[in-house]
Design a protein that fits this description.
The chain is α/β, with parallel strands linked by helices. Among the domains are: 159 residues, Rossmann fold, CATH 3.40.50; 93 residues, no CATH class. Helices cover 37% and strands 15% of the residues. The strands form 3 sheets. Strands 3-2-1-4-5-6 form a 6-stranded parallel β-sheet, with helices on both faces. The chain has a 3-stranded antiparallel β-sheet with strand order 9-10-11, with helices on one face. Strands 7-8 form a two-stranded antiparallel sheet. Strand 4, helix 3 and strand 5 form a beta-alpha-beta unit. The radius of gyration is 23 Å and the shape is globular.
Length: 396
């Protein structure tokens, strides 16, 4: 008798920070339904919440269990601060209005306070544990992956949790999807017909985009015409009553970027959009690990390794080439003068934003973590904050 069976995969340990916001809940459902890591990958999900949110987390857990999701192995809620060995993937979902650009003039809100307090404490805990812990012998070959919803959290984690391996940090970039949408509308084609998008950026307001030629995958451009002038064939432009004087490299570098910036400034970060971006980014990070013999090209946020004359240790959007658990910055357009000029501009923006963020985090640590200068609730026993002794073991 011949028995056929599928090899059982070891459950993937995922820790979700701030899991009770709608974007996190949508992301969790997508992961547990098999839409991110595949139907064969079981998941052990840990929900990291404040201690006073445990009852709400338990209610959510019962809802998830009731859905009988295909990839659910176990799901638990905790308020204990994590160590670097507690999960294979750490997912951070913040409450920032724009997770890539911080408005330093409007930070005095409860949502911002909760996000900063939570992220800073976890970053410190992960950094401390990474410095003193050795991973389980069975997992030494598995570097933890840290995925955030934007560059702000990426910068905080890398700055405060400085002993965590920077190669494990990722965040989604909204620009490739927006670029494909805008260009597909302009050329009257489907989004999937637009060729690969390369993005460099300091955030989602200051960026540069290059799109591989031909811009439309099925378009035909003669080899000798692969120049800055002809981006789209006459055959494709004629029905649109356009020509190469209206649609060329100059238009792509100016008018197109301006239109794209206008779309991005509308801030599309609703819960559905953030959940979709987070899931898409996890797929892009996980795909090279699932197929290590292939290379994958994608644009996303990472901590710079100093390539392309960028500042090492600071967050940028980059076009990347990934294989297995390793990545490197794609240098295909490195020699283009306008790309070099834009990167110089991005360096100044990233450096300035990082300096402001570090200053704010230091002040926040002194006032709210080191000195424990919290505003108590009406009933001190119900306060979401605790003493220094208590907070050393858990998230208060």
């Amino acid at each position: 008798m011949n028995f056929l069976y599928d090899q059982t995969l070891e459950p993937l340990r995922i820790l979700m920070v701030n899991p009770l916001v709608p974007a996190s809940q949508l992301t969790i459902i997508k992961m547990l339904s098999g839409a991110v890591f595949g139907m064969k990958q079981l998941i052990h999900m840990t929900l990291l919440v404040y201690s006073n949110e445990i009852p709400s987390a338990q209610e959510f857990i019962q809802e998830v269990i009731g859905c009988n999701l295909a990839c659910l192995h176990t799901i638990v809620a905790t308020s204990d601060l994590p160590s670097i060995s507690d999960a294979d993937i750490f997912c951070f979902m913040s409450n920032f209005a724009n997770p890539n650009v911080l408005d330093f003039d409007n930070l005095d809100t409860d949502d911002h306070f909760d996000s900063f307090y939570l992220i800073i404490k976890i970053a410190y805990s992960l950094g401390k544990s990474a410095a003193i812990e050795e991973l389980d012998a069975k997992r030494k070959d598995k570097k933890p992956i840290i995925i955030t919803d934007g560059l702000i959290v990426l910068d905080i984690l890398n700055t405060i949790g400085c002993d965590i391996k920077p190669s494990g940090y990722y965040c989604p970039s909204p620009i490739p999807a927006l670029a494909k949408t805008l260009l597909s509308e302009h050329l009257k084609v489907q989004c999937n017909d637009i060729n690969h998008v390369y993005v460099w950026g300091a955030n989602d307001l200051d960026f540069h985009v290059e799109i591989e030629k031909p811009l439309v995958k099925y378009d035909e451009i003669l080899t000798q015409t692969h120049c800055d002038w002809e981006m789209v064939s006459v055959k494709l432009l004629d029905p649109l009553k356009m020509d190469n004087t209206q649609f060329n490299a100059s238009w792509m570098r100016r008018e197109f970027i301006e239109k794209l910036t206008q779309v991005s400034t509308k801030n599309p970060y609703g819960c559905i959009y953030k959940a979709w971006e987070m899931c898409r980014n996890m797929i892009n990070v996980w795909k090279p690990r699932a197929a290590p013999d292939k290379t994958h090209c994608i644009s996303m946020g990472v901590i710079s390794d100093g390539s392309l004359r960028t500042i090492k240790g600071l967050p940028y959007f980059f076009p990347m080439v990934s294989q297995g658990d390793k990545w490197e910055i794609n240098e295909r357009y490195e020699e283009l003068p306008h790309v070099r000029q834009e990167i110089k501009r991005f360096n100044q923006i990233v450096k300035s934003n990082h300096k402001k963020l570090v200053k704010y985090c230091k002040k926040f640590l002194e006032e709210n973590v080191i000195n424990q200068a919290f505003v108590p609730a009406d009933d001190e026993t119900d306060s979401i904050y605790s003493s220094t002794e208590q907070s050393s073991q858990g998230i208060v």
